[in-house]
Structure formats: C-alpha cells, structure tokens
Amino acid sequence: MKKVLSVLLLLAMLLCFSSAALAVNEDVEGELVIYSSAYPEVLDMLDEALKKEFPNLTPGVNGSFFFYSGSGKLISRISGEMGPDRNQPLECDMLMMAEPSYSLEMKDYGYLHSFEIENADTLFRFPYDEEGYWYPVRVCNMVLAYNPEAVDYWAAKGVTIPKTFKDFASDPSLKGYISMGDPMTSGTAYAAVVGLLGKYGDEYLNWLAANEVKRESGSTAIANLQDNQCAALMILEESILKFLYDENETNHKNIHNIEVIYPEDGVVLIPSNVMIVAEEYSKNANIEAAEAVARWFATEDGQAAIIRGFMHSTLAGMKDCPYHSVDTDELIQKDIGVDWIKAYRERDSILSKWTTTVTTAR
Q: Which of 121, 142, 173, 321 is the most exposed place for a label (fewest CB within 10 A)?
C-alpha cells in the first residue's frame, strides 16, 4: 500500500511540475496571419515577441505573423478580397489597423468575431467595443516636429516655427515649408485631418492648401527637415522617437537636429485596435489562437512590446511611456479628439474635400 501511495504521490508531483513548466501559451497551435499597418521595424519587434510567447504557433507570412502595408493599401486589399458582394474570405485571421474607424466598418460588414477581454471596463483607458468586436492595443500620437538647430536659419528667412497645429497650417511665413503624410494612403494622417477639421472646420484644408503643404513619407520628411527643406512637420511621434533612438542609442551619433513639438492646441491620439476576423471569413479559422494573441496584446508584457515600438499603451495605470516621450495620461488631457463615426461614415466625402482643396491646389 505504501508503495502504491508513493507512486501516486510521485505522479501527482510530476503532473504539477509539468503544468507549472508549461508556459501559458505553449498550447496555442496552428497558423496565424495578421494584417497590420504598423511600421515594418515595429512589426519585426512584435513578431519576435509573439514567437517567444507562442512558440508552437506558426507564422503564416514567410516566417512572420504579419503582412504589412499602409492603411489605404490594406483597406483596398481587404475590399478586393471581400469581393463585390462582401461574402468572400480574407487572406488573414486578424487585423491591426492604425485608423480605428475602420473597425466600425468591418463590424458593420459582419466580418469580425466577438470575444471577451476580462475587466475591459477597468483595463483600458481608451474606448473599446462593448460587444467585443475590437479593443485598443496601441496608441499613435500625431504631433509636430522641427529642427532646433535651424531656428535662427528660419528666422533669418522670416519663418516662425509653429507651436500649434493652427499655426502650422495657417501661418503664411511657412508657405512651402511644411510637410505631412497623405490622408489618401495614411490612416493616421487621415485621422489627424478628421480631428483638425472637427476643431477648426473646413477652413483647415484651405489653410493647408494656401501654405502649399507637402505630402511625404516619414523618412523623407525627416531628411528634409534636417536639410532645412522643411521648417516643420506634422508627423507621428513614434517616427521621431524611433529615429532619435536609432541614431543616439544604436548608432551613438548624439543627434540634436530634430525634436518633437507637442502642439499647444492639442495632440491627436489615435488608439489603434485589434480585430479578429470571423471564422467563416478567416484564412486559417484559428479562432482560439487569435483570441489568445489578442488577449496577450492587452497584458503588461504585450503592452511593454508596444511601448518598445515607440507607441503608447492603452492600459489604464500603465506608467511606462515610449523612449523620450511624455506621460500618456498627460497627452490624454490634451487630446483634440476624433469623431470616429464621422471618420467612418464620411470617409469618401472628407477625402474628396482633401483632393479638391489640397491636392489639386499644388
């Protein structure tokens, strides 16, 4: 009897040890594809974090979990995959789009899977879908940027470095010397335009047109700022922070010719969501894995990976912020805000106004 009890005790100990040694997500298997508009360098970091957290989950895009493209191109791709009747499956299982109004659109199309993240009402400091179709997992921040070493150069030309989004667009001294992303292709640029239209009205587009705003990618705009071809940029904070980190921490160059301006009339915070494609429309129909990944993004470990990617955390009480940034709750107090329903419902008309007023003005 003693021998039997000893064997049973040993088996119990082994079972306890095995369950303790098994990481929470080692049992998550299958294949997964995520469409995302986050910067490729950021996705590389997130990809490595996911591979470590989910060692038995198979990346579905040439060794990566992520398929990257800009928001505008991804929306076009998804639309094409849906087909004209919006009833065809997608080539992905999850979506992490920069511009959150697209979450409303995909929900309306019936393409999303509803799931629960526990205690969401106290977990997040940004809105989430109460029916569980999308949750915020990263926050992009639209700001201004300038070259602090070129202030005297621009002053000699009669140019004043703007301290507000209003001055950026409307100060005539800046004519021909400002740059931003293109809302036709960039979801975050589009979100910023919607927010600024809400604050200043359609006049904001007229100001941008009169000041001959350039539309450039982040890397091109940063180079032009350093070369004094531009005096100020409207740009994502993460673009500037990543550039400074790469130059100063990785390449040890001690760069001082680019800096963020947190506009005095507010910032535009863009809480980007994670969505799971409904099983009947997803590539791998791996709902269990998709839910596990989405929930991991809402953990402190997942959000730490987001912060390392130079974006802000969506979690309430998360005090860490990106490299050289400021407190997230402080930014929330200064948020201009975006009417996401308007951004969704009036997307075509807003982009048409942009094209007519700004693009053709050049």
A: 121
